[in-house]
């Protein structure tokens, strides 16, 4: 991770909330296809109970990545928006740092399992998730679109 990068949990009452959300929505539109993007419903997603968003800024305060997670029940949590990182900041450890922080946040909720979905063709993402302990549960046909599947992956937490 580059020196000077800062990992922050988005707080609705923070003074820079609107600016951060605006930057994330721009990233969302640029990184994800329209049918996969939460850009139109981002504010609604953030208002949900039992959800959180972590973002990372560079030395200039610019948002370079984010991850959204939720814990809909006491048993499970999910990464609802995977660690998205601006192209110019990739391969520097930002995605891994964001994902590790989200995993830790979910652990504090005492859930038993953390799940996510990922396109099996996203080799780098699959490698990162496996490196952090996620295992493929199943292949879900036509998850993203008629011709794009998803691997459902999970990370079980120790019950100790």
Description:
- The structure is a single chain.
- The chain is an alpha+beta fold.
- The protein has a single domain, classed as Aminopeptidase (3-Layer(aba) Sandwich), CATH 3.40.630.
- The protein has four helices and seven strands.
- It has helices at residues 17-31, 42-47, 94-107, 123-131, and strands at residues 6-9, 51-57, 63-70, 76-85, 113-118, 135-145, 148-156.
- It has a seven-stranded mixed beta sheet with strand order 1-2-3-4-5-7-6, sandwiched between helices.
List the helices and strands and how they pair.
Elements: E1 6-9, H1 17-31, H2 42-47, E2 51-57, E3 63-70, E4 76-85, H3 94-107, E5 113-118, H4 123-131, E6 135-145, E7 148-156
Parallel strand pairs: 4-5
Antiparallel strand pairs: 1-2, 2-3, 3-4, 5-7, 6-7
Pfam families: Acetyltransf_1
InterPro entries: Acyl_CoA_acyltransferase, GNAT_dom
Domain N-acetyltransferase: 8-158
Summarize the structure.
The protein is α+β, with helices and mostly antiparallel strands.
Note the overall shape: globular
C-alpha Rg (nearest Å): 15 Å
CATH topology: Aminopeptidase
Give the class from helix and strand content and strand pairing.
alpha+beta
CATH class: Alpha Beta
Q: What is the mean pLDDT?
A: 82
- The total count of helices amounts to 4
Number of E strands:
7
Distance linking N and C termini: 31 Å
Order of strands across the main sheet: 1-2-3-4-5-7-6
- Into which percentage range does the β-strand content fall? 25-35%
What is the ordering of alpha helices and beta strands? EHHEEEHEHEE
Number of domains: 1
Helix share bin: 25-40%
Provide the low-confidence segments as ranges.
none
CATH homology superfamily: Gcn5-related N-acetyltransferase (GNAT)
Annotated CATH architecture:
3-Layer(aba) Sandwich
Main pleated-sheet profile: 7 strands, mixed
